[in-house]
Amino acid sequence: MPYLIAFLFLFILNHTMGQTATEIYHRGVEAYHAGHYDEAMEKFNTAIKADDQQAVFYKMRGDCKMRMENTRGALADFNKSEKMGLNTARLYLSRGAAYMRTDQLDAALTDFNTSLQLDSASADGWFNRGSVHYLQYDVKQAVADYTKALKYHPEFADAYYFRGVAKSELKNAGNEGINDIRKAMQLDTSLYEGYLSIAIIQMETKSYQKALNNLNTAIDKKGPYLAEAYYFRAEARYALKDRDGACNDWEEAGMLGDMDAAQTYRDLCIKGKEKKPTRSGHRKAITF
């Protein structure tokens, strides 16, 4: 009888610990979705300490580590959850994003393909795969994947934006690219970098005044890539024969950390040397 009582005690104890771990995990999920990542991380660590055999605990902790910019730690957790048997579209989507962040593009592509095999209607899956194709300079496939993402999420602002940027690299598709970027900006009114991207496309077709107007807006909005905006506004002003305005903008861009602008300001505006060609801007003006 004592052995039976001891067995029942251990069974109840383990069962209670399992429930507690699950409850703590769910509180961590709630904190994660609320954007309270430090609290979520504490909950996931506690849940794993109580029950280290739940693959999904590691997966969610990996997602939390990604939010906290701990990509290496996130990869370790994603790999652990896979080894423990987790086989979900969300796992491969998350790990693919971690590989992408660490420039392991082939590994990212493999995971996004696996994710899409498990869930072919995932707008995020198509979007992320399109972004890998874009970074690998397979622009046509990137456009196709972004289009698939929009099929499953018609108001996906980032998909419109990046499809527009990708389209602008295809022959005679610059206007289509601008239209996509404008659509993205309608859906997400905080997407101020769209003004910069449109301006870069317009500069490539020598529409300098239109580009200048968009660059003025990008700078007025104080959005991301401010140094880039000053650099390209300098280029537009120089093309429009406004040398003094261009020099002011190159100087400002240089003070904001743009090394190309600082060099151009020293060489052309201070030393009077011949101007170097404008750098290509598309891939410098976007971040995944």
- Major β-sheet annotation: none
Cα separation of the termini: 64 Å
- The fold-level CATH name of the domain at 1-77 is Serine Threonine Protein Phosphatase 5, Tetratricopeptide repeat
Provide mean pLDDT, rounded. 91
The total strand number stands at: 0
Count of alpha and pi helical runs? 15
Helix share bin = over 70%
Assigned CATH class of the domain at 1-77: Mainly Alpha
Element-level helix/strand string: HHHHHHHHHHHHHHH
Beta percentage is: under 5%
Under the CATH scheme, the architecture of the domain at 1-77 is: Alpha Horseshoe
CATH H-level homologous superfamily name of the domain at 1-77: Tetratricopeptide repeat domain
Radius of gyration: 25 Å
Describe the global form: elongated
Parts with pLDDT < 50 across at least 5 consecutive residues: 1-18
Structural descriptors:
single chain; 288 residues; mainly alpha; Serine Threonine Protein Phosphatase 5, Tetratricopeptide repeat; 15 helices; elongated; disordered N terminus
Outline of the structure:
The chain is mainly α and 288 residues long.
What does this protein structure show overall?
The chain is mainly alpha-helical. The protein has a domain at about 1-75: Serine Threonine Protein Phosphatase 5, Tetratricopeptide repeat (Alpha Horseshoe). About 75% of the residues lie in helices and about 0% in strands. The protein contains 15 helices and no strands. Helix 10 (about 175-185) runs antiparallel to helix 11.
